[in-house]
Amino acid sequence: MNRFFFLLMTASVGFITLSTTSRAAVVAPKPIRALLISGGCCHDYPGQDLILSEGISKRAKVDWTIVRDPSTGTKGRPSIYSKPDWSSGFDVVVHNECFADEKELAWLDRILEGHRKGVPAVVIHCSMHCYRAPTNEWFKFVGVTSHRHGPHFAYALKNVRPEHPVMKGFPAEWQTPKEELYNIAKLWPDTIPLGTGYSPETKKDETCIWVSNYEGVRVFGTTVGHYNHTMKEPVFMDLLARGLLWACAKLDDEGQPKPGYAPAVAPAP
Ligand SMILES: [Zn+2]
């Protein structure tokens, strides 16, 4: 091979490599595949399915699969949990279900197995009161133990860790609309409180926003979200979007979606 041809070949290979790399750099990542599980007692889950999925997708690049159990009582078994490998194919599971009387240990274990395989979670409101099996494993998973709530009232939700990316942009204190503040009996060791509300009933600050870790899997949780009017609040929806992105390790240190995970169309001001 003559020297000129060799140099030409080398330059061509270099160009091909460079252009391939450049192209790879601008290919946007695929949307986060989120599974939303809802249903059960005491809340408007058809309404909340829409509020959550549409609200979060205005703030982050997320595609949704929604499984709502038809039960409106405290017992119910969302069909997807019956499938082997039920969480496979999803990047995150959002639990917004309410089944306090589902207490079978094997059923609980089936649900948790889907997370032990490495799928992170967002846990909202009545999810904390589910699956009171003879073990405390569900509570360990969600990060807090709670068995009851106090009266419905509006309260000042304090941002107790403003430096955490999930709380960037959350006010120092947010006056909620009328809500339902849960009593927290225990914070599990890996749980970091991010927000609290004072309960006149228990006379203590109850953790109502947190992050946790279950066997190496990220969990973002909040007990806020009884009423649809709370879920629709932009402050709360912004929080949920940051929490979901954080659970997926797609939130940057400033509380913004990492490159490629902002929504296709920005929310209206
Ligand atoms: Zn509730």
Structural commentary:
This protein has a single domain, classed as Rossmann fold (3-Layer(aba) Sandwich). It has six helices and 13 strands. α2 crosses α6. The N and C termini lie far apart (63 Å). About 7% of the residues have low confidence. Bound molecules: zinc ion. Zinc ion (ZN) binds next to loops.
Spell out the key features of this protein.
269 residues, alpha/beta, Rossmann fold, nine-stranded mixed β-sheet, two-stranded antiparallel sheet, 27% helix, globular, binds zinc ion
Strand order of the largest sheet: 2-1-3-4-13-12-11-7-8
Cα end-to-end separation: 63 Å
Bound molecules: zinc ion
How many strands appear in the DSSP assignment? 13
Largest sheet: 9 strands, mixed
Estimated share of beta-strand residues: 25-35%
Oligomeric assembly: single chain
Structure class: alpha/beta
Query: Could you estimate the helical fraction of the residues in percent?
Result: 25-40%
Overall spatial form: globular
Q: Please, how many domains? A: 1
By CATH, the superfamily comes out as Class I glutamine amidotransferase (GATase) domain
User: From N to C, what is the helix and strand string?
Assistant: HEHEEHEHEEEEEEEEEHH
Q: Given this structure, which CATH class is correct?
A: Alpha Beta
| Radius of gyration from CA coordinates | 22 Å
Q: Helix tally? A: 6
The name CATH uses for the topology is Rossmann fold
Report low-confidence residues grouped into runs of 5 or more.
Answer: 4-22
Mean pLDDT: 91
CATH architecture name: 3-Layer(aba) Sandwich
